[in-house]
Design goal:
heterodimer, A: alpha/beta, Rossmann fold, 6-stranded mixed sheet, 12 strands, globular, B: mainly alpha, binds adenosine-5'-triphosphate, binds magnesium ion
Chain lengths: 280, 322
């Protein structure tokens, strides 16, 4: 891959969140990392996603934007194996997959930060961090937890990302602030995410400093060749990190915007206008 | 490094432990014979079986479900066992395994019905309570379920330990509590149990097999209730359909007194054991100071409510309350 400055952003509103400007062009001649083919999803009788086709390449940040209730989180949960789509198929690294459970998706290197399913409040930090991917010694049929190691690694990972001032991994998570909890979930996804990161409004509860760290982490993940699906309502966050912006409306993709095609205000205008048109 | 006092304060068993200490001290001072062998036998035999039932109920409650059928199962399993090997002359071990298998089957039904139809386990197991109560009445009519010469299996489950005032259920209680403590705090399965009861959505999203965890815990709860019932039968040499009456409520009470959250996600095994000892000590102690035998439940009821209020006030059930 060649390094080279491309598509510089020069919108004044971007100034608030300075992130690395140097970036590689996404190589779309390769095999896509993840593909949704003709995906539809219904919650009971309420249809939320209509025939969506979406590709994510390695080393690409795809931003999903759209109004409240557009179906962004639903789509992300389908990526993550949390929801089984009503129809359509998923392909991961060129092969058709059916996850059934999030455990299968995680085993393949797909990690998610959910908007509404971040953390188990009663568990201590390290138990949350390693939940579902515990480090355990196998003794016969038993999976004996390596508690000390998990405690240490959780503390190191959180300190390394500099997201919070959490002192001990033994603390129950309900004693943390909303932003700190969010940070734990993000750190976990980045720690385990090997191929694909799914982030649903990860910065919603974060301070400016932490938001900056998260956006930098997204960049870093991208530079390491991970695919990223990123949901955010704040276009000042979306524009600097996204290679492609997918506009979702009432469960349908209505527009795909390439990096550098539009500015923040234009984008905001676009989303608001479409939402208004839809209402009338 | 955490200071010693800080780590001591973090021990969840501390509060119920101090409560037990206080109650024991109270009865020691108020009665002359609290430490007599007879009293020790009475307290430990009542407490041991309730504690074993409570351990199963605790791990199930931590995963976010209830089991109201344990009290009836506590009679049902030994009735089946006794019918098979006392009345029908089947080998004692085979009949014990068959009876415990049936206890597990009860747990499987509880778990499947609750998870497949998504109804509250409160209702599923209340239904099972009545089903088993009816079966117990049906099975026991016309039968004299007494055993004058205990078999080896009965000896192993309920005999006196040497010349001490203690009986085998006490030993089993420690063994079982230790195993379940290990499962809950040291195994991956324990982590999954805590997470499932804590918040089922995030647990599932992280890849925890929440439905399987709940089903297994329903079986564990039923199995321990049946096993404890067999111990009671082995200790008393007789079983009636009234055995284990109210045990479903006493087990939940023991768990709650020991710090287990009613909302799931939090609790300790040793806390429930301490809770069972609190119940037994109060029951026997009140008799010793001359209070009519059946009055103790009134006292327990008041205590239960006070403990829950205190826990909520102190934020021990944190995260669930506003
Ligand atoms: N668990 C559910 N059961 C039933 N309907 C649901 C459920 N979750 C979402 N929906 C419906 O699906 C549609 C899409 O919801 P979704 O959460 O995906 O929107 P979103 O784009 O993430 O919105 P937001 O920006 O508010 O997070 C909405 O109409 C919503 O009412
Ligand atoms: Mg959403």
């Amino acid at each position: 891959m060649s390094h080279g400055p491309q598509n510089r952003n020069s919108h004044p509103t971007d100034a608030a969140i300075p992130v690395a400007e140097k970036r590689n062009e996404v190589d779309r001649s390769r095999e896509p990392l993840f593909e949704l083919r003709a995906i539809s999803h219904s919650y009971g009788r309420n249809k939320a996603i209509f025939d969506v086709n979406l590709l994510v390449w390695p080393g690409e940040v795809v931003a999903l934007v759209g109004d409240n209730g557009a179906g962004k989180s639903t789509l992300l949960k389908i990526f993550a194996g949390y929801l089984e789509p009503t129809s359509g198929s998923l392909r991961f690294m060129g092969e058709e997959v059916r996850f059934g459970t999030p455990a299968r998706a995680r085993a393949l290197g797909i990690e998610a930060v959910y908007q509404d399913l971040a953390i188990v409040d009663q568990l201590s930090l390290w138990r949350n961090f390693f939940l579902g991917k515990e480090i355990a010694r196998k003794i016969g049929p038993l999976q004996v937890l390596e508690r000390r190691r998990m405690r240490r690694e959780a503390e190191t990972a959180i300190a390394k990302l500099g997201l919070t001032r959490i002192r001990s991994a033994e603390q129950p998570v309900w004693a943390l602030s909303g932003g700190e909890r969010q940070s734990v979930a993000i750190t976990r996804a980045i720690y385990f995410g090997a191929k694909l990161l799914l982030l649903d409004e990860p910065t919603a509860a974060l301070s400016v400093r932490e938001t900056r760290n998260v956006l930098a982490s997204i960049h870093q993940a991208r530079d390491h060749g991970l695919g990223v699906l990123y949901i955010d309502h704040n276009m000042n966050h979306v524009l600097p990190v996204a290679d492609r912006i997918v506009l979702l409306e009432h469960g349908r993709i209505v527009r795909t915007i390439d990096r550098g095609e539009v500015g923040v205000e234009e984008l905001q205008e676009l989303i608001a206008r479409r939402a208004q048109n839809a209402e009338s | 490094m955490k200071s010693f006092t800080e780590s001591l304060l973090n021990v969840r068993e501390l509060a119920p432990g101090l409560g037990l200490l206080f109650v024991v001290l109270f009865f020691t001072l108020q009665t002359g014979n609290f430490w007599s062998p007879e009293t020790m036998t009475a307290v430990s035999s009542v407490a041991s079986t309730i504690a074993i039932v409570a351990v199963g109920v605790t791990i199930l409650m931590i995963s976010g479900e209830f089991d109201l059928s344990v009290g009836q199962n506590f009679a049902f399993t030994p009735i089946v066992w006794a019918l098979l090997f006392v009345s029908d002359g089947i080998n004692q071990w085979i009949s014990l395994i068959a009876a415990l298998g049936l206890a597990c089957f009860v747990g499987i039904i509880n778990g499947l019905v609750t998870t497949i139809f998504g109804i509250p386990s409160f209702i599923t197991t209340l239904g099972m309570f009545f089903v088993l109560e009816g079966l117990n009445n049906l099975l026991i009519t016309g039968h004299q379920l007494m055993m004058f010469q205990p078999s080896t299996a009965m000896w192993l489950l309920g005999a006196q330990i040497g010349n001490t005032p203690f009986y085998m259920p006490l030993v089993w209680m420690f063994v079982i509590a230790f195993v379940f403590w290990f499962v809950l705090t040291r195994l991956r399965y324990g982590n999954w149990t805590l997470a499932t009861g804590g918040k089922v959505g995030p647990a599932k999203a992280m890849g925890v097999a929440t439905i399987r965890v709940k089903r297994i815990n329903f079986v564990l709860s039923a199995l321990l209730a049946g096993l404890a019932g067999c111990m009671q039968f082995s200790y008393l040499h007789t079983v009636t359909q009234g055995q284990g009456q109210n045990y479903e409520l006493l087990a939940i009470t023991a768990a709650v007194l020991g710090g287990t959250s009613l909302f799931g996600g939090m609790g300790t095994i040793w806390g429930s054991v301490i809770g069972a000892y609190l119940l037994a000590t109060i029951q026997i102690g009140l008799v010793l100071i001359g209070v009519p035998g059946s009055f103790y439940v009134t006292f327990i009821g008041v205590l239960l409510v006070i403990v829950v209020i205190a826990n909520v006030r102190l934020g021990r059930f944190g995260g669930n309350q506003a």
